[in-house]
Amino acid sequence: MSTDLHGRTQRLELSDQNLRSFEAVVLDSTPEGIVLSRSAFYPGGGGQPADHGVLLWLGVETRIVGIRKGDDLYLIPAEGDPVPPVGTVVEAAVEDERRSALMRTHSGLHVLCGVVFRDYGSLVTGGNMEPLSARMDFNMPEVPPGFKEAVEDACNAEILADRRIDVRVLPRKEAFDIPDIIRTATNLVPEEVEDVRIVDIVGLDTQADGGTHVASTRQIGRIKVAKIESKGRGFRRLRIAISD
Ligand SMILES: [Zn+2]
């Protein structure tokens, strides 16, 4: 998908979520940020934090510890690390352990979201994640007895069912004809966005989403509902942990 541009950087991770290394040319370079011609680093967004990794060039290593989204995508180098000059061809590697954990966690949150909507009709109001732990907020006036165990069991049943997780890009109009997309994203996708990326846990949950996901639910591992917090009227926060 050649349209996956952020500023001058072609985003590779949107169409290939398993890509962990790539070559690119440095377009801009300061100790505050490095701009590459192409990048598989997830820049952060939708609750999923940015990737970490390294750039290798002429025998030198530049660690990447974050990403700033501006007119371009700025890879933030570790403090004190040398930065490659403009025009350098770099070998880049995304830190696999962190990214793979974030993919499992992000897909796990979508399973949770799908289960809670299907079984309780509750909508998500917010969420955030770290590798292998996450929280998700729901609009839910009453918490029924046995809710925590029931949700956990239902999530793990969906994982064992090994549902496919498909990613596709649809024209805006077509995307918003999917009833689930209207539920989760009508107000979140800016009007000027013409193509909408859809993450579909087939048979469970369909959302407009820019994050990176595993290919099927079994790859998530196990979901534990660690805690349910009450955050005021009708506002429940579920904390989950992901394990093997
Ligand atoms: Zn998501």
Features of this protein?
244 residues; alpha+beta; six-stranded antiparallel β-sheet; four-stranded antiparallel β-sheet; 4 helices; 16 strands; binds zinc ion
Write the layout of secondary structure elements.
Elements: E1 5-6, E2 9-11, E3 21-30, E4 33-36, E5 38-39, E6 53-57, E7 60-69, E8 73-77, E9 89-94, H1 96-120, E10 124-130, E11 133-139, H2 147-160, E12 165-171, H3 172-175, H4 179-185, E13 195-201, E14 205-208, E15 222-230, E16 235-243
Parallel strand pairs: 2-5
Antiparallel strand pairs: 1-2, 3-4, 3-9, 6-7, 6-9, 7-8, 10-11, 11-16, 12-13, 13-14, 15-16
Residues 46, 106, 110, 209, 211 line the site of zinc ion (ZN).
Could you explain the architecture of this structure?
The chain is α+β, with helices and mostly antiparallel strands and 244 residues long. It is built from four helices and 16 strands. Strands 4-3-9-6-7-8 form a six-stranded antiparallel β-sheet, with no helix packed on it. Strands 10-11-16-15 form a four-stranded antiparallel β-sheet, with helices on one face. Strands 1-2-5 form a three-stranded mixed β-sheet, with no helix packed on it. α1 (96-120) packs across α2 (147-160). The model has no long low-confidence stretch (mean pLDDT 93). The structure holds zinc ion (ZN). Zinc ion (ZN) binds at residues 46, 106, 110, 209, 211.
